[in-house]
Amino acid sequence: MNVHHLLSDVASESNRIHHSAFRNKIVSAEEAVQHIHAGDTVAISGFASAGTPKAVTPALADRIRRSRASGADFAVNLLTGASVASDTERMLAEVDGISLRMPYQAEPTARRSINAGSMDYVDIHLSHVAQQVWEGYYGHVDIAVVEVSGITETGELIPSASIGNNKTWLDVAEKIILEVNSWVPTAMAGIHDVYYGTALPPHRKPIMLTAVEDRIGQTTFRVDPDKVVAVVETNARDSASGLTPPDAVSQAIASHVLDFFEHEVSRGRLPADSLLPLQSGIGNVANAVLQGLDAGPHKGLTCYSEVIQDGMLHLIKHGTVRFASATSLALSEAGIDELVSNIDFYREHIVLRPQEISNHPEVVRRLGIIAMNGMLEADIYGNVNSTHVMGTKIMNGIGGSGDFARNGYLSMFLSPSTAKGGSISSIVPMVPHVDHTEHDTQVLVTEQGLADLRGLSPRRRSRVVIDKCAHPDYRDALHDYVARAESVADAGHTPHLLGDALSFHQRFLDTGSMRL
Amino acid sequence: MNVHHLLSDVASESNRIHHSAFRNKIVSAEEAVQHIHAGDTVAISGFASAGTPKAVTPALADRIRRSRASGADFAVNLLTGASVASDTERMLAEVDGISLRMPYQAEPTARRSINAGSMDYVDIHLSHVAQQVWEGYYGHVDIAVVEVSGITETGELIPSASIGNNKTWLDVAEKIILEVNSWVPTAMAGIHDVYYGTALPPHRKPIMLTAVEDRIGQTTFRVDPDKVVAVVETNARDSASGLTPPDAVSQAIASHVLDFFEHEVSRGRLPADSLLPLQSGIGNVANAVLQGLDAGPHKGLTCYSEVIQDGMLHLIKHGTVRFASATSLALSEAGIDELVSNIDFYREHIVLRPQEISNHPEVVRRLGIIAMNGMLEADIYGNVNSTHVMGTKIMNGIGGSGDFARNGYLSMFLSPSTAKGGSISSIVPMVPHVDHTEHDTQVLVTEQGLADLRGLSPRRRSRVVIDKCAHPDYRDALHDYVARAESVADAGHTPHLLGDALSFHQRFLDTGSMRL
């Protein structure tokens, strides 16, 4: 090993490692994964498309594949920030390399394994991951694999394009493999704010963050060099987040959202100039809302969210957005180039934080977040299903939507009113899986319109949801359901016919369409 | 009016009003309610059995009754802290005096009106009430009726036995009626901590409360004397919270909870001496847990909850509990006597706060609350129904359970495994109403056992929930459901048969029992 370390040191390809204790540990990815064993709990960096380890995870998949080919069982528990680069998730899923997955995924191969029951998946709020791992709910964390963009002379780590749970992984893991990625611009250093003040109760203190742009931490991760068992050098682009231009449906949804903001401003419920900090999920609808804001009257907006997508860069460039806080840069190829080419500018308008802070209930409540998240479907009373197609098959996971919806100031859920060419209605009598309860949803939006449920009892909600949000093709069937449910004796506060409540979904399973 | 004020002043029966601006406004309850008009939004004091106005609300019910007798329509929107003294709720419901009710109720007459659709009811998290009313989601608050125990020389108000939303009502209401209740011991003054630091975003600051006993506010309410239109003097006991001794089922549930605490201590996940601050709902199960703690090894425990019941007084007296924070004293007759007779002692161990703070997500998260709440039923995947019998008929409301479960450290839901003599199973394939999602429930407890769901995927959860918590009479049917749901092709992450998922409930509606 000593000989090898010397060789590696000489072979260092970049000038990113400024501390000898780490230079001495440079090895190839293939050598690094020898530290990972079957049954290990492996915590890796990565949040959305940014910051996933680029060399060690493929090498791990390869090792597992070869191990399986030789008849040995080899799988690990995989903990991440959220989704990771989808080729990584796919490679590990294809070799049946993951026995337990937490807390979020968005990749077809892994999704198939989860839905087939061959991969255990635990779908928890992203703000809960750090404390639950600290508490040991997922057992001992054997090893962390964390991408960084450099190592300072004092042995601290400069993060790359996402932070996610990396601080926690470095703290809790028994062993650490670092990937030092020289593709990340050195000028990105300083964009990060890593807060070291969280603790387990009874030792928690107030998190003194009162504005989106506040810095409360340091720009680097701390690490115990003795835990670092390998350092791997890479020079590899982040994978790109796909992006298609907003279509007419997305633009219609966005337009209802923007009208609603003006309505709230006119009632004195939102500050006229800068509204309140915006959170939005990933996707075309979210991008359409951002585009709409860019064309609107507001300047100096702020965002407090999980990911920064291309649209946000435009808004920052135009001054529409003054400051954006997130935990990851989930950009397209073009977005990555835009960021990298103008990093000195963007570093003044963007901060990346641990997801423990980007999604923290204390901060979300205090800042008064306007939470805008996608959904699969909502029912007539405002319960929202974000995760389970037909109640059983998981799509991705709840992610941070509950962190923002539950503690935010305005909780909005957005979706086209239909899916699968109109054969699925996004407004149903009863959702077969609830991720956000009627108590936590205030506004539903489809391209048809916006249902403002604040202050409404269930019987008033059902009318508003159907008339404002349901597709016209499904309104009669929904009104008919309500009429029949309300007509029975003892109909109750929230009228339902249990025999019919899931009939839309059953019909889809039976006929391929929710239509009558 | 001037003559009348002079007479009233002379007629003042107590020595509780130390400011002339208020003495000059003393009137009878019948006169006071002339300030309340049909269609008004009326915000009254009261949280559980404590602090409900005792003279003005009956006078209002009487006024509405007479008004209706003369053919006029008369109803108000009624905002409270949570439930209020049940005779008050009943009197107003009996005369159809409430058109909209918010945020919680627990009284049979009102419940019938809500379930019949004749009273609008909005069931929201108790921590959300203040901000939503400030924002105007319930329109203009025309008048507040608030019980206090005295008025100081500087014109501030000494609270009575609950705080609830009183601070907010006094701030937002256009007009105010005060009831000064001389039954409340003067020695109770000082037990309260009224925090005036909350604000609407973007003006929110950290709430600097880091321990259960911290005082961050003042002992009195502020009020604009110009808004006070009437002062009514009373000398009336709080209504008593009923209490029956814990039965064998409650004791068995408590015993599982206590064993779990020791298990967590042994794993190093709870501090061995004082655990973490406890929150528990109202009821016999909660009382049984407290009794069990009183007989156990822990001393110096703390509680951060909504209400203090009789059991808590015993624990404080014995030193088992060092300090308890709440927003209301919901005591039995004997409990009231115990408190009043030893108020100087209890005042050193109890603080009452606004419910905005007792239930605040920021504080709940920071303190690391162990949340123990009752439930109606849970499903095999851990979704919890706290509010709707058979999915349609509301029982009470979500209250603060979501405030604590969603942001707390350990989220536990407790219930006997059956109801109605065994004809209802509290563990079902799918709950027909979700108040707490699978993402927010960690531990389910019945007298049968305790299901620890932390870190488990849905397919693992179903086995644990059935085997640990379901009544033996229902286990086979539940296992059969799981087996059939998992056996279909493409069973999914969370297997369900939509045609059978609500069959337990449908069977109960059809036959009066969930049994096959």
TrEMBL record, chains A, B:
InterPro entries: AcetylCoA_hyd_C, AcetylCoA_hyd_C_sf, ActCoA_hydro, ActCoA_hydro_N, NagB/RpiA_transferase-like, Succinate_CoA_transferase. It comes from the Bacteria. One of its GO terms (molecular function) is hydrolase activity. Keywords: Hydrolase. Residues 335-481 form the Acetyl-CoA hydrolase/transferase C-terminal domain. Coiled coil: none annotated. The keyword Hydrolase applies. Residues 22-233 form the Acetyl-CoA hydrolase/transferase N-terminal domain. Gene3D superfamilies: 4-hydroxybutyrate coenzyme like domains (3.30.750.70), Acetyl-CoA hydrolase/transferase C-terminal domain (3.40.1080.20), Glutaconate Coenzyme A-transferase (3.40.1080.10). The keyword 4Fe-4S does not apply. PANTHER family: ACETYL-COA HYDROLASE. Belongs to the acetyl-CoA hydrolase/transferase family. This is Acetyl-CoA hydrolase/transferase family protein. It comes from Rhodococcus zopfii.
